[in-house]
UniProtKB/TrEMBL annotation:
Pathway: Carbohydrate degradation; glycolysis; pyruvate from D-glyceraldehyde 3-phosphate: step 3/5. This is 2,3-bisphosphoglycerate-dependent phosphoglycerate mutase. InterPro entries: His_Pase_superF_clade-1 (IPR013078), His_PPase_superfam (IPR029033), PG/BPGM_mutase_AS (IPR001345), Phosphogly_mut1 (IPR005952). Keywords: Gluconeogenesis, Glycolysis, Isomerase. PROSITE patterns: PG_MUTASE.
Length: 239
């Protein structure tokens, strides 16, 4: 049966600065690089050798995947990049400090923007510093100006169905190095997590989440490879 590992990128510079990052292409901190390398060591210790790694087009995810593969001695694993595995787009919150935003708009409102399933932040204004419309990585694509977790799942699921699931169903093992919200979307999909429960699912940075799947891609077992930094996992779905 296929195995899947979900690996959230290591700490980024804007994680450290407590800023809404979304699609902004910031790099890893030294701590984030260390988390990525440790993730690779854990992957090797688990005897996991992916047939392919999928990642987003953002540097922090790509570098996390590359550092993990290097640390695991798996530099020859083919890599597929796609923007549909990007982090959630934080719209008009992009670049703002989270604490200062809570002071301005109120902690309750910011919590709704951050953690609700289907309420997006205000849209990103066109033509500003963080307008991604001219970015060549998204040429020819209709890209959002804000996203909720629901609309993040709306773009992740078709990519999962078309590109990732067929590899798993063919018996391949897959590593996905991506972001907190794109990976939460995959967890919601696989574990059939209810809308009101997915907001409580946290995925720690740099800690590989190994999921055993059956032939229908239903999880049969799941665990974080670093037990000391694990977060609670959703219940396994019923067959």
């Amino acid at each position: 049966m296929p195995r899947l590992i979900l690996l959230r990128h290591g700490q980024s510079q804007w994680n450290l600065e407590n800023r809404f990052t979304g699609w902004v292409d910031v790099d890893l901190t030294a701590e984030g690089e260390a988390q990525a390398r440790r993730g690779g060591e854990l992957i090797a210790e688990a005897g996991f050798r992916p047939d392919v790694m999928f990642t987003s087009v953002l540097t922090r995810a790509k570098r996390t995947g590359a550092l993990a593969l290097d640390s695991a001695g798996l530099k020859d694993v083919p890599v597929v990049e796609d923007w549909r595995l990007n982090e959630r787009h934080y719209g008009g919150l992009t670049g703002l400090n989270k604490a200062e935003t809570a002071e301005k708009h109120g902690a309750d409102q910011v919590k709704i923007w951050r953690r609700s399933y289907d309420v997006p932040p205000p849209p990103l204004a066109a033509g500003g510093e963080y307008d991604f419309a001219a970015d060549p990585r998204y040429a020819g694509q209709t890209i959002p100006d804000t996203e909720s977790l629901k609309t993040t799942l709306d773009r992740v699921q078709p990519y999962w169905d078309a590109e990732i699931a067929p590899r798993l169903k063919a018996g391949e093992d897959v590593l996905i190095a991506a972001h907190g919200n794109s990976l939460r979307a995959i967890v919601k999909l696989l574990f059939r997590v209810p809308d009101d429960a997915i907001v409580g699912v946290e995925i720690p940075t740099g800690n590989p989440l190994e999921i055993d799947l059956d032939g229908e891609l239903r999880p049969t077992a799941a665990r974080y490879l670093d037990a000391d930094r694990a977060q609670p996992l959703p219940a396994l779905p019923e067959a």
